[in-house]
Structure formats: C-alpha cells, structure tokens
Design a protein that fits this description.
The protein is α+β, with helices and mostly antiparallel strands. It contains ten helices and 19 strands. The strands form five sheets. Strands 9, 12, 15, 16, 17, 18 and 19 form a seven-stranded mixed β-sheet that branches. A hairpin with a 4-residue loop joins strand 4 and strand 5. Helix 7 crosses helix 8.
C-alpha cells in the first residue's frame, strides 16, 4: 500500500511553487514528519514532511518543476525496501524524462494549467458570460483583469473596474545582454534567479511604476534613547527575558505618529482610500536568500517587551527560512533598518499597497550646535518614503517630526504627546 505526498496549502493567493530540493531519493526509508523536500514560493520556502513511516517509492515532481497546490509530489510505500526498490527506477529522470505530474502548472504566460482527467480543480474557471462578452467588445486581455469571483472567475464588475483604471505605458523590455567573448565567459557564472528574488524585483518595480513615491528626510539625536536603554537594559532583560533594542523605540514612535497622521497608515483601493484603525508593523529583514518583511500584527497593542520578543522570533524564523505566508501578510506600515549594514542615508522603496516606509540608518557621532555650543551627539538620519497620491507633504513632514520628537524625548510616548 502506498500513500501520496501532495503540495500543501501555500498561503492566501499563492497557487504555485517550485520544487527546490529533495532531501530523499527513491528507495530511502523515511520516518513520520521527516522532511522529504523543500518548496520555494514567491516569498517563503515550505518544507514538506512525510505523512507516514515507510519507504520513498517514487518521486513524481523533480527538482525545478513548478507545481500547483495539491499537486502530487511523491509516493511513499508502507512496505519494505524491496517493494520500493522495484518501483524506484520508474521515478528516475532517465527512465521517464518526459513525465510530468498531471497537475503541474504550465510555465507559459497564459496562466493555464495542464491538468489530467483525474485532477481538474486547478483548471482555469469559466468566466461569467457577461464578462467574456465585455472583454471581447473592449479588446481587453483577461490577464489585465483582477478576478474576484468564486474560484478565480472574472465577473463583469471586474472588467468594468479594469476599464476604469488609468492606462499606463507598457514597460520596455529589458535590453538583451550583448555577446560575451570566450575568455570572459570562462570567468562568469550564470545562476537562475530564485523565485524570491524574482518577486522582489517585480514588486519593487511595480511600486515605482504605480505609486507617486517621494522621500522626505530628517535627523534624530539618539542621546536620550541610548541613555534610557543603557540605564534599564539589564533590568529589562532580567524581567522580560529579552534584550532591549532600538527597534521597539522606533516601532512605538511610528505608532504614535501614525495615530496623528493616519493617511500614512492607509492604502488606495481603486478610487477609495482605506484607513486602518490598527497598526500591523512590517519589519524588513535581510536573509541569505533576499529581503523579507515579517509583520507584527496589532503592534499598537503591544508593550516594549512584546515588540522585542516578536521581532526576535520573526528574525529567527526569517534567518532559518521558516516564515509562513501568514507571517508576511497584512502589513500597514514598514520600518527598514539599513543602519545595521552601515548605511548612512538611503531612500527606501514602498512595500505596496502600503503608503509609507521609514528608513533607519547608522548612528554616527557628529558635531551639533545646541544652545549656542558645539557638542558631539549620536545622530541618525531618518527617511520617510511615502505615496504622494494619498499623503501630502505636510502630513509626511509632520509624521517624521513626530517620530523625531518621540525619540529625542521618549517620555512623550508615555504621556501620548
């Protein structure tokens, strides 16, 4: 008797993944919950455990293949290794080079699915007749319409909404790389971009093409925060079991400012502005595979200790590649700390559909004129990138000034000033 191993649910709006690595080969024994393979989605990697103890008898989806949700990955035999060994050859790429799982997604641009007779649930759903007629009359491509109907059906309202959106010039195709001489080619290495890196590139470019992005700058004297941290860091660690860092101060300061300038915490949906009466704070984190943004849900309800613990947990999951799609969805505002890498100043790019992102930078001692005297102070440049379609310059500057005031006098946070 054999048990099927299928692609698990990948998260909201995620319908496909790439088989990145197989940890086992046909004929290997596996234990319950032992990792069989790793799938790579647009944002995270997903490990697929073995549902039973037995022997891996067949690998259906080879490394590099694109598979849909619930696609067949492998077969596990509950019998001994002898039975598995007999069926193992048919899983090798040499024995069946043309074989693909019945529900593997096509890699073309049509978005269609090559589904077998036994698996039809991944096929494109039939759009509403009224929507089909309207798309034909207006000459609009289906890929340009965001489907909201059941199982991804395009409804008439979706087509009308797509027609109402202002048209933008199609982006120019990337210029093909010129020919490389033989001696140069020997010194180059060509590596395929990971799905994560491709998604990062696409989202960042989409952000630039869509939002009217502008950046405003300020600087903050970190003296008070640093002194407060040095005074209470040992007691904080002893009581809460977590170190007191700077991120909790910045998170609290941003939340304080967002309450005064709510448009920075809002987003545009068509011709509507959606204001959020909560703060889900995205904390950008660099990983070996690329930038990810885990989200602290309801950060405005958290204490300093809860924020530090949540950031620590998310950071560990990010470094280990254990973040789930749920961990990175629903953010309303983002903080990016380039200072940990030594950045003195930069202009962060918006994380759509959010309307604001704060860039932190390196703390550097600089001479400052205070009360007519030149003194050395630990200074940090701050950068707020915002969507000018929804946030005016006055709101952006006010937000950044409120963050500066809260950090230069942390007592303001306690008194909500």
């Amino acid at each position: 008797m054999s048990t099927e191993v299928r692609v698990p649910t990948l998260g909201e709006s995620v319908t496909e993944a790439t088989v990145a690595t197989w940890f086992k080969k046909p004929g290997d024994s596996v234990a319950v919950d032992e990792m069989l393979c790793e799938l790579e989605t647009d944002k995270v990697t997903v490990e697929v455990p073995s549902p039973i103890a037995g022997t891996l008898s067949e690998i259906v989806a080879a490394e590099g293949e694109t598979v849909g949700v619930d696609a067949l990955l492998a077969q596990i035999s509950e019998g001994g290794a002898d039975n598995a060994a007999a069926s193992a050859p048919k899983a090798s790429s040499e024995a069946a080079p043309a074989k693909k799982p019945a529900n593997t997604l096509a890699t073309g641009g049509t978005g269609t699915v090559n589904a077998g007779p036994e698996d039809t649930k991944l096929r494109d759903p039939e759009d509403a007749p009224s929507a089909q007629k309207l798309m034909a009359e207006k000459g609009i491509d289906r890929d340009a319409v965001t489907a909201t109907g059941k199982d991804g059906r395009v409804m008439k309202e979706d087509v009308l909404k797509a027609l109402a959106q202002p048209k933008t010039d199609a982006p120019k195709a990337a210029t093909p790389r010129g020919a490389t001489s033989a001696d140069q080619a020997d010194r180059e290495e060509r590596v395929k971009m990971t799905r994560l890196r491709q998604t990062i590139a696409k989202r960042l470019k989409d952000s630039q093409n869509t939002a009217a992005m502008l950046t405003t700058y300020n600087e903050v004297d970190m003296t008070e925060v640093m002194e407060l941290r040095n005074t209470y860091k040992d007691l904080f660690l002893k009581k809460h079991g977590v170190k007191l860092g700077f991120m909790s101060f910045f998170t609290k300061a941003c939340i304080h400012a967002l309450h005064e300038v709510p448009e920075v915490n809002a987003e545009i949906d068509g011709t509507d502005v959606v204001y959020k009466n909560y703060v889900n704070m995205g904390i950008a984190a660099g990983t070996p595979t690329g930038l990810v943004v885990p989200v602290l849900k309801d950060a405005d309800q958290m204490s300093f200790a809860e924020i530090e613990k949540a950031i620590g947990e998310m950071g560990s999951k990010a470094r280990d590649g254990k973040l789930s799609m749920a961990d990175m969805q629903g953010g309303t505002f983002t903080i990016s700390n380039g200072g940990v890498y030594g950045s003195l100043m930069s202009s962060p790019i918006l994380n759509p559909p959010q309307s604001g992102i704060l860039g932190m930078h390196k703390i550097q001692d600089r001479p400052m004129a205070i009360n007519g005297q030149v003194v050395i102070r630990p200074m940090m440049y701050l950068a707020l990138s915002y969507d000018h379609r929804i946030v005016d310059g006055k709101g952006a500057v006010t937000f950044l000034v409120r963050v500066k005031e809260a950090l230069e006098d942390p007592r303001r946070l306690l008194m909500d000033l």
